[in-house]
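Homework help board

Subject: predicted structure for assignment chain

Our instructor gave us this sequence and asked us to write out the predicted structure in token form, then describe one feature. I got the tokens but I'm not sure how to describe them. Can anyone check?
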Amino acid sequence: MKCTCNESCIKNKEDTLQEINKKYLPCSNCNTRQLKKSMPLIRQVKLSDLDKNYLRCESCGKRHIDIVMAHVLKIMIESNQISSSTSIRNVGTPLISPAISLRALPYLPEKSLVIITTTSDKQTAEKIIEEVPEIKAIIKGDTHQTVGKINETTDAIEYELLSGCDIRCDIQFTDIEPILIYKHQSKLHIEYPKEESPKIKQLDEVLDKYENPTVLDAMCGPGTLGIYAILKNAKKVLFNDIYEQSLDCLKTNLKINEIPDSYYEITNENILNLTEKLNQKYDVGIIDAFPNEDTRKYAEVLKQVCDEIVII
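My token output:
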């Protein structure tokens, strides 16, 4: 996994965690104005006023996410990508990076927001990256369409990176320690960090039954659940995914989360054929499929090599 820009988008765990708690908080001098998400922007702000300094805090340099989205919308309007009567809600899906579960809308520093949108061309995206300091990447895609390889019968779906660098980091806090998950957001599905992850909680309840289990993470994606299993008590995890882009991100995440090589193996196999190539059994098998996927066939396969199956 490589950063395509000239900046260091993949940072070590210690540095990332040291700054994250205050990263999106306003300072005492920040302008606290927020916009109405569904009201046309032109009824709230004079477009000619919107530039990189509009309502930017002179002390900490941050702006409220509403103002950043308004700045992006202004450029889209002026580039004839979207109606002048639209609101910031129609800009696209904003994703902060590094991302944590927030209780309030963020105040953004530079290069901290990726936007997935259907309303921008490449030229407009390049202008946004040039003129809006908070924006890290503009990705063209419909978030109703899941990115990645859904199953063994479908082709992989990827969004289009229009401009910037689409490497994002999600930080999932757990009962043991935080897990950092890096991904190319144009190639992997969106997952929002939660204060308490239901997936991790479900896996934790199973792992509690064992002292040092072996785990088969059969649809591992970028690695969150398998990494948690190692941090919890697993003596070995086999990470498997049919999608090579997931495994590319996984390798970075194993390194960032300081997982020793001796604790894991990685394979790139169709889950339905996986058991034919294994020469050992596992205590726990994890199936974390995409929504609406029928997992029964996967469970039947894993039962051949796993004592217990967790369907997330």
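Reply (TA_rk): Your tokens look well-formed. For the description, you could write something like this. Residues 65-78 form the longest helix (14 residues). That's the kind of observation they're looking for.
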